[in-house]
Write a structure and sequence with these properties.
255 residues, alpha+beta, seven-stranded mixed beta sheet, 14 strands, 28% strand, globular
């Protein structure tokens, strides 16, 4: 088995090589660390470290309580990037609706900042249909930190939820693990039901365009009944707690 550190080094090399000669990739010096996954360069570019989600700070939002270890995640990013020169690389959409650049960051020594935050247990993997990056390496780093209960993984706030326990987590981002009891496609939309009552129990659903992404990735959603899976996403409330999955990397098939 290739060590995780070696995997991270390989990933950095691939990302940097792919970005070579790209004008959007021009390096910059970090002027400010906003939180554990967002920084500002001296030229004014605000960078959202794509592919991860660090614990959130209020950042001026009324009645928003900091997530546990949000301060530790920001401090870790300060240590990694504060005042340092970084290079950018891209794996999908480059700018979000807030005008932030969506990039992987690497310092002059080759350290992959996203990988380091995952390795230290100070971020979770957080991908999008149009920007999912080197997912296997990121999930491996997250898994190792979780198994070692490093950082956030030692705090109950970030425990992996069960289909029965996730009811209280509506409005938050969670990892939910359990057995799919039933899988069906209704009017083009896919449903993975984790309980006997689809009106109240936890469900993962995919709209028709998202379902096709799973099919293109070779995943037969209707065959997942009886399988144990881990889903990640924001918990909504619609006929019970629900995750709306938009791309395959939100779902890990565990068996």
């Amino acid at each position: 088995m290739v060590p995780l550190r070696a995997i991270a080094v390989i990933v950095v090399g691939v990302l940097l090589a792919a970005a070579d000669g790209d004008p959007d990739r021009r390096p910059g010096v970090v002027a400010e660390v906003i939180d554990g996954d967002t920084i500002v360069l001296t030229d004014g570019r605000e960078i959202r470290l794509v592919g991860i989600q660090a614990p959130k700070l209020p950042l001026g939002r009324a009645e928003f309580r900091a997530w546990p270890l949000a301060g530790a995640a920001k401090d870790a990013m300060e240590d990694l990037a504060g005042g340092r020169r970084v290079s950018l690389s891209f794996t999908g959409r480059r700018v979000d609706r807030h005008g932030r650049w969506l990039a992987h960051l690497h310092d002059d020594g080759g350290t992959w900042l996203q990988g380091t935050m995952l390795e230290h247990g100070l971020a979770r993997v957080y991908t999008f249909a149009d920007n999912d990056g080197p997912i296997d390496a990121m999930l491996a780093l997250e898994r190792t930190a979780r198994d070692a209960r490093r950082g956030i993984w030692g705090h109950p706030y970030y425990d992996i939820r069960t289909p029965a326990s996730v009811t209280r987590d509506v409005g938050s981002f969670q990892l939910v693990e359990g057995q799919v009891l039933d899988a069906a496609i209704v009017r083009g939309r896919a449903y993975l039901n984790f309980g006997p009552d689809w009106k109240t129990d936890f469900t993962v659903t995919m709209a028709p365009d998202a379902r096709r992404r799973f099919e293109d990735a070779g995943i037969d959603l209707t065959s997942l009944a009886g399988h144990r899976v881990r889903a990640r996403g924001w918990i909504k409330s619609y006929n019970g707690p629900m995750i709306e999955a938009t791309h395959p990397h939100q779902l890990e098939i565990l068996d």
